[in-house]
Amino acid sequence: MNKITTTALLLTCALPVLAVAQQPSSSNFGPSAGDREFSISGAGSSDRRFNSGTFGVTGEYGWYQSDHVVWGIRQSVNYASIRGESLKDDFWNGSTRGYGNYQFGTGASRPFVGGSLGFIYGDGVKNSGFAGLETGLKHYMNSTTYLLGRVEYQFFFSKERSEFDEGFKDGAWAYTVGLGYNF
């Protein structure tokens, strides 16, 4: 886990530096109808001695229906290694979902809102369908490359219709910071 955490941390820190090194080629930022986008994001944490930790990565691929509306597919994979006096275990989980977002404005910074629908599965979670509401910001460093920050609230579906309220109340937050590219 120590090598994985250290390598992931170094790569996560290096990506924004490489993107910022590219100077904007014009004042025209962002996508146009028909463009596609790809982004990769990461997250992680560990205890102070790097004995226990978590790491996650999310990739997404989208298509712009218009200059402001994007539809796509998002895949997340998460790993947790928990070490303690009485517990030693490793957990994997993932989620696959479709998403739709509307982004505002035409400048370098573009806030967005949207939603997702998908499935979560793995060792540390109850396999379930879920829906999510999301908001975030894309900041374009040049005409095609952007930094991404997103917050999602995911609520889980139950087999029984009467448990919808519980699924919403027992939802989970997902935070993402990454780098993307329009092409």
Descriptive overview:
The protein is built from 2 helices and 8 strands; from the N terminus they run αβββββββαβ. The protein is mostly beta strands. The protein has a single domain, classed as Porin. Strands 1-2-3-4-5-6-7-8 form an 8-stranded antiparallel β-barrel. β5 and β6 form a beta hairpin.
Summarize the structure.
This protein is mainly β. It is built from two helices and eight strands.
SSE blueprint:
Elements: H1 2-20, E1 36-46, E2 53-64, E3 69-83, E4 88-103, E5 109-122, E6 128-140, E7 145-156, H2 164-169, E8 172-182
Antiparallel strand pairs: 1-2, 1-8, 2-3, 3-4, 4-5, 5-6, 6-7, 7-8
Largest sheet, order of strands side by side?
Answer: 1-2-3-4-5-6-7-8
Q: Tally the structural domains.
A: 1
- Beta content: over 45%
What fold name goes in the CATH topology slot? Porin
- Shape assignment: globular
Q: Percent of residues in helical segments? A: 10-25%
Comma- or semicolon-separated keywords:
8-stranded antiparallel beta barrel; globular; 183 residues; Porin; mainly beta; 14% helix; 8 strands; 57% strand
